[in-house]
Amino acid sequence: MALSAPARLRVDDPSGVAPARRAVEQLADDLGFDEQRKGEAAIVVTELATNLVRHAGGGEIILRVNRTRGATIDAIACDRGPGISNLARARDDGYSTGGGPGNGLGAIGRMSTMDLQSGPGGAVVLARLGGEVPPLDGLALAMAGESASGDAWGSVTDGEFTTILLADGLGHGDAAAAAANTAVRELSPGLDATAALTRIHGALLPTRGAAGAVARWNRRTGALQYAGIGNIAATIVIEGETRSLVSMPGILGHGVQRPRAFDYGFPPGALLVMHSDGLRSGWDLNAYPGLPRRDPLVTAAVLIRDFERGRDDVSVVVARG
What we know:
The protein is of the alpha+beta class. The protein has 2 domains: 7-129, Heat Shock Protein 90 (2-Layer Sandwich); 136-320, PPM-type phosphatase domain (Phosphatase 2c, domain 1). The chain has 7 helices and 15 strands. The strands form 3 sheets. The chain has a 5-stranded antiparallel β-sheet, sandwiched between helices. InterPro entries: HATPase_C_sf (IPR036890), HATPase_dom (IPR003594), PPM-type-like_dom_sf (IPR036457), PPM-type_phosphatase-like_dom (IPR001932), Ptase_RsbX (IPR039248). Keywords: ATP-binding, Nucleotide-binding. One of its GO terms (molecular function) is ATP binding.
């Protein structure tokens, strides 16, 4: 299993539970987990997968390496089932609506940092097997049939500034992934949004090119500078109201006008959502009560579950002001 590419595993019946467990065990081996951590990872993913079958009629497990601090594993279970009717009780050991021992969410919560979103359209359960909940996170997933995602994202911090990049390599597959990953490697601290895109444009000249957007966020003042080229969409959500950020036409590494930056307010409690065109537009966080307060990775996973086009790589990055 490639450590840099999230794995997506369908779990539609009991036969899908064991492959999910083996996948996380292999990933834990690759990362050098000791036997205790490996065993906990296996239990968490087994419980997530079992719950998908027992309560939701199936769903998907996403396994991702998180390298923010060291190397840990994030496991996400996504389904379109009836949701969890009583979240408070469901976290307690011994409570079950599916005929099992009722240890699923309780065990997951003890062995990981867990967060979830549930409603009539299904549930997303995140288990972070190490590490803290960051103020920004995202998912970049390959389209079906590809082993590498042509979307990539990254961030750097310098002083009171955090700079976020999302890149979508032209097309899909290995060549698109090479372009997107080149863009992320060129992300450097200390550059404003325009300078960062100009630098990335030069680095992408030998590649097939990419769409890309940079958001430079002053965490102290709440000011956000944004510059985008191509089909990256970005939205700031403030108390349920949305504001779309402006990107310019072109392809980084090929035909592109000089990047232009725009200034926005990004106050505490607001969300910044950036995504590639592998995600359909038209999403509305107001349709998911409580979602803006969830772990950013839960928000990204919910949007991918409900708005993924399915014929392209897809990526969503979420930052909380």
